[in-house]
Specification:
alpha+beta
Length: 107
């Protein structure tokens, strides 16, 4: 799964936390590719008036009709503003002085 955020919401996504939710109008796209790199389709979450709406996109880029309430219900369980984003994982601590040289030499 590949995830992209449109440029206007990228900084908010990178700093995503309970205290700093995504702004209205933000769009987050997750898509699937075949092993050969062909687009298989994906999903879009868009925040409108403080609520997230979900959409499915086909491999051709067209919206797929349907009811995506179950997508939103799953995202209700996400740790930060309905997203399982980058803040869901702990950020690594900065390397200690000289640690980069050791890590590089060990490769």
């Amino acid at each position: 799964v590949h995830v992209r955020v449109e440029p206007s919401g990228l900084a908010a996504y990178q700093d995503l936390s309970v205290e700093a939710p995504m702004p209205d109008g933000a769009r987050v796209v997750a898509w699937h590719e075949s092993p050969a790199g062909a687009l298989l389709g994906g999903y879009v979450l868009e925040k409108r008036s403080g609520a997230w709406q979900a959409f499915e996109v086909g491999a051709d880029g067209a919206l797929v009709p349907g009811n995506f309430a179950s997508c939103v219900r799953c995202h209700d369980m996400a740790p930060t503003d309905h997203l399982f984003g980058s803040q869901a994982r702990a950020r690594p601590a900065p390397p200690a002085k000289g640690a980069e040289l050791i890590a590089t030499a060990a490769r």
